[in-house]
Amino acid sequence: MTGVSEQGHSLFRIAMRSLLSSKATTMALALMAIVVLLTLAAPLLSPWDIDSTDWDNVATSPSIETAHYFGTDDVGRDIFVRTLYGGRISLLVGLSATMVSLVIGVFWGAIAGYAGGRTDQLMMRFVDVMYAMPFMFFVILLMVFFGRNIFLIFVAVGAVNWLDMARIVRGQTLSMKHREFVEAARAGGVSNLNIIRRHIIPNLLGVVIVYVTLTIPQVILVESFLSFLGLGVQEPMTSWGALVNDGAALMESAPWTLFFPALFLAVTLFCFNFIGDGLRDALDPRDSAGES
Amino acid sequence: MTMPVATTAMPLLELKSLNVSFAGRDGITRAVKDLSYTLRTSETLGIVGESGSGKTQSVMSLMGLLPHNATVSGKAMLNGTDLLALSQSELNRVRGKDIAMVFQDPMTSLNPHLTVGAQMSLVARRHLGKPKRDALAECRLMLEAVRIPEVAKRMTQYPHELSGGMRQRVMIATALLCKPKLLIADEPTTALDVTVQAQILELMCELQTDFATAILLITHDMGVVAGTCDRVLVMSKGERVEENFVEPLFATPQHPYTRALLAAVPRLNEVNTELNQPTDTAQRLEARGLEVTYSIDSKRFLAAPHQLKALRGVDLNLIAGETLGVVGESGCGKSTLARAVLNLIPASAGDVLLMGESLQKLTAKQRRAMRSDMQIIFQDPLASLNPRMTIADILCEPLDTYHPNLSRAEKLRRASIMIEKVGLSPEQLTRYPHEFSGGQCQRIGIARALMFEPKLIVCDEPVSALDVSVQAKVVQLLIELQKELNLSLVFIAHDLAVVRQISHRVMVMYLGKVVELADRDEIYSSPRHPYTRALISAVPIPDPKLQQSLGFAAISGDLPSPLHPPAGCAFCTRCPLAEPRCANEEPPLRAVGRSMVACHLAD
Lengths: 292, 603
What we know:
By secondary structure, chain A is mainly α. Chain A is built from twelve helices and no strands. Chain A is elongated.
């Protein structure tokens, strides 16, 4: 959005300004940035590797001297490094599965809503059928056929999550398509595809962005759940969900193996929820309407 | 400034240097500046001003209904108590009992989940402390006082089942339930049709004498003020610019702002615009027997949908450089006509010809090519512009569609020329719609329509959302553009005075049919259909002397449901002249004098 000239106060800028004016949201954004930076800078911060085992320190508690800042697990792997690497996977799954659901869901919903009639009926009944499929059964089936693979998780989660997005977007499109600026575009001979692309989708983004920030934590939780069940990422790679699972087994002897991954997971979810709330308020048209 | 001399009686309401300001993102906005006025019992004070003049904020502060970011200072003495110093709970005892309020939109100010009887009786029980049965009886009496037919049935209905005029009557009845000393009416008739507006205003005047209530009437309409108020206060930018009794104010306005405001009001009886003289007699637009039917799902399970005939056979023609005005109450099919003519909604029968070519017979591709010849301007200027696009993008979109080969620079050059033509500056191209005022947005809407280089523009209530002074300018702009570009215009409006300023011919519609069609001077000087006469006489005239001699409400009642239009002449249910044959035979549109009229009795 850097192309916007000095004079234009785009809705995006207004939203950013009101987003940053809320303390809770600014805190959440800052915390989120710290978590992301930590996961990216993981190799620089610790001498340990994700799968290196330190036989001198097995299941030891956090300590600065040994450079095991978060302690080690029952085979001597460094929890600090594993938490940060696990964060990469969790965030990657969260973002990419959400993007998959975003792209499919927005287009599916917008087309169904704008076309209306029989097309709408067919597209939305397909969504209903997909809804009826039991999610866990679907994932287990995929795992059995194709083996455990991180990309399968993206596919599985994305394939289920776009359904919600499509429904939300369709509802919004229905209310949008009789707005006067859409009618003006129709009267101006703009093609249907361009109306959806230029007029409908940009105006849906407020709702969609908010939904996305609520979907990301949901997907991270689903991945954690799958990893907890042993269907998620494969060793030695790990994710927050997998770490929490491992930590839960050692809860009594080495509580730090549970505590730190769980802390990161909780903080991230917390941040996303706050950012989502803040965005919802910032993009609420009633707020900006009162301005003029 | 002449100040009306107050009589010795103590005023009911005395406002002393009221200030209202709002803390916003861009600092503090002063909405009301140092406002003082008095109001005596049984008096009506009109507060007039354009949007943003602070007229609503000044009374909202009396009711304690301002948002949290507002700060109020000053004094508002109602019978010796300062309203601004009261606590919430003290205010709750005053509100509804001593002061009552009627709002602009009766749909949103009634609770949609409660029946009329339930929400009215709540007020009676709260403030009069009556048991439920007495409260309901009180409500019934009051509904009769505001002349609602079939009161027993109305009590059990929900707000959405009533018409707009009925809802406003319910609001007034609720407000008067506790016999308040002061009634605040904030644009009480702005959302209503002229015929209904006349009925409501008449009712309010009568009730005032019955109940000895003082009324604060807030409005932007000088015509409404002229007919109802004793004194008038003109506000601009939060300040009082003039205050006087109604007759001298209209006869000899002192302040330039008042004079400008009065001059901008379109008058039915005088025309001050010079119209384009069409030279070319080629038909630009023709509609033959145009019908539009909507299907509405029945409430009953698996029942066949209802067929709502919004247009029931409309013929019209328009030559180059001519304007056809279309008037009628809401629900008469004006907007449907606009959209059917442009093929934005499919016609169920009949045909539309644009420059001799039938739109119905064209393929989708040919129709899209024809679209650049016919454009539309909408009622709500802001809603018709995509909030996420800059003005430059909005104006260039027509070129993207029809001249995709032009360079971006060339498109911007054309957009700059066009935006100057509608009276804005090219520097404003990089801005977004929400940064403009309503009038400016409407200019942008006009500029967008002109970017297509159209031959026909359908204007669907283009000025009804604008202030009068802005209205006049937009109408003048349209007239000038018509002269310059030889445009044909279909101008749809519910305001007959505005239609007279711009139209060559005027078409009156009622329940999806044309009831009268004539040249503008003909139709205003000798209206032949009883409905046309009723519409014209219901328009409030911004002149207190004329107004008092004319009297109000020529027709009573509301528009019948278009789902079940009356048999015979559609207007026979409200017609003061109706004869038995009107209910059986449908009158055809026939030539009477120099007009076309659909009435058995016209001669």
